[in-house]
Amino acid sequence: MPLDLVTIPCRQDNYAYLIHDPQSGATALIDAPEAAPILAALSVRGWQLGQIFITHHHTDHVEGVAELRAATGAQVSGAAADAHRLPPLDRTLVPGDSVTVGAESGSVLDMPGHTIGHIAFHFAAAQLLFTADSLMALGCGRLFEGTAEQMWRALGTLDALPDTTLVCSGHEYTQSNARFALTIEPGNTALHARAARIAEARAKDMPTVPSLLGLERATNPFLRAHLPHVKSSLGLPNASDVESFAELRQRKDRF
Ligand code: ZN
Ligand code: FE
Q1: CB count, 10 Å around CB of 17?
Q2: Using omega within 30 degrees of 0 as the cis cutoff, is the peptide bond preceding 37 cis?
Q3: In this predicted model, what pLDDT tens digit does every residue of 79-125 receive, in sequence order?
Q4: Domain spans of the chain?
Q5: Distance 55 CA to ligand 1 centre (A)
Q6: CATH topology of domain 4-254
Q7: Which residues surround ligand 2, an ion (CB under 5 A)?
């Protein structure tokens, strides 16, 4: 991996991520739930924060931005579509834009659903995908603003990415997600094995993120809504893929 990655637990159950290019020393942060643990993570490594990339406007992803900017002088980038409800931005991003951290470049992906302006960051060479509250470990974000169709389509754009991509998502919801996933696919052996590893990690208070995209494809029901046995499990054998995804999301909301 040409970029160093640090996972930083924040608040109750949020994650922020630092990426660092050892050659140039360039360091960027993805999401700023709160400043203190991020400043601590920078300081123990002697890293200088140059950039903050924001995935979406929710408080638990941006509340630390002002303090981090003041403390480090980092440049802040976020979706142009959400500029009116994000902290002040030095750079506005639209899907398809590139961001750079040292020699590594990442592309901005449109991930509407949880919010309309939600974006993800994909560093292809480093195989790092920062999804926050779009694709999550064994789950996906709630549909606060977008439709099931928007999120299903957005998740579908990740189909082209390799199994070895590391999915860096925004919350520690994985254990509850696993319990839900098992109600949908009780016969999925990869899911059972993953649920056991998740329980072990959580018993030791270890993060269950990041996760490999290949494992998400094999176990995350929200990437599997199109499969006939998943539709049947929902009692909707003739549903469209979007209808199946929408039903999964609604059931998870009630779970
Ligand atoms: Zn959110
Ligand atoms: Fe969140």
Answers
A1: 25
A2: no
A3: 999 999 999 999 999 999 999 999 999 999 999 999 999 999 999 99
A4: 4-254
A5: 9
A6: Metallo-beta-lactamase; Chain A (3.60.15)
A7: 60, 133
Residue corresponding to tokens 């899911």: 191
76 CA from centroid of ligand 2 (Å) = 18
Ligand 2 midpoint to CA 14 (Å): 7
Are the beta carbons of 179 and 135 closer than 8 angstroms? no
3-state secondary structure of 244: helix
Please report, for residues 12, 199, 243, the alpha-carbon distance to residue 170 in angstroms, rounded to integers and kept in the order given. 12, 19, 26
Interval 225-252: pLDDT, tens: 999 999 999 999 999 999 999 999 999 9
> Any residues with CB less than 8 A from the CB of 224 and at least 6 apart, and which?
185, 217, 230
DSSP string, 66-87: HHHHHHH--EEEEEGGGGGGSS
The span from the CA of 36 to the CA of 57, in Å, is 19
CA 171 – ligand 2 centroid, Å: 7
